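Support request, please re-run this one:
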Amino acid sequence: MPPRPSWRGGRASSAGYLQIPLWLSRDELSELVAEMRAVIASRMDNEPAPDRRLHLLSPILFPIEERPGADSG
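Re-run finished. Output below.
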């Protein structure tokens, strides 16, 4: 099993990124996207507060290669 990816960036500022290659079926991808949407949506109505700072979250998801043996034509 390959080593688990680690967070890249500054812990003090909470800025950083994480890239994780995942082999997913279409159904698994749909499920993952739905789960991520739910997690993000659960915080979208947060109002400004003295202990809160505004953060920008920019999820990007794209295929990086065809599965082994897939017909590319």
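The helical segments are 26-41. The chain has a mean pLDDT of 83.
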